[in-house]
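Title: Request for sanity check on Flavodoxin prediction

Description:
We are preparing a figure and want to confirm that the structure record we downloaded matches what your pipeline produces today. Could someone re-run it with the sequence below and paste the raw structure tokens into this thread? We only need the token string, no images.
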Amino acid sequence: MTRRTSALYPMRTRHANPACELRVQTTLMETSSKLRHNVLIGYGSATGQAEDCADIIGDSLTAAGYHTHIVELNNVRRDPAFLRQFTLFVVVCSSSDDNDDHVPDNAAEFVDWLKFFPDLKNMPIALFTLGDSSYNGSFNAAGNLIENLLTQCGVKFTVPPGLADDEEGSPFEQLEPWVNNLSRTVKLAIPGSPMVHAEVGTPDITTDVA
């Protein structure tokens, strides 16, 4: 799948470089009053599909008028005060057979942090996970673990957690109704949500922000 950005999505920022992410996080902390319409999307991906799903979610929410920031889960600042400044925090994660707990390497540090049960009570969080039901014993193992940990941290999900099963077809097609529901729900449920103001333009190939 080719990742694309567009004039349709002028406010979407993708941070691939951890040093850049740290600078962005520091800047956001210093300008917290500007975070009202910012959405943080963190992904854990072993094969790239969860990363692609994060991109699609970012596109949808940007078109709905939000500033979106997409980072690996390990590079999310593990600080409840920081996370609470965002309108919404979206977690996207697949399962991996490379580790005993099936958590992808680029999400392991974030999941380890959740095991200390940080106070995330009433924080607006959404969760979308990917699995393959042909792996009976480990189907959606990482997603189930993250959902359970977030629940124990006091999270009440903005919408019910979504799940794409590889055995059921394209994960991107399974994502579409979930992300559409998320976009509608956020605008209705979260005070101060922006009106839709997507612009028309010709898509260009994405370049990572450095």
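Thanks, this matches our download. The mean pLDDT is 79.
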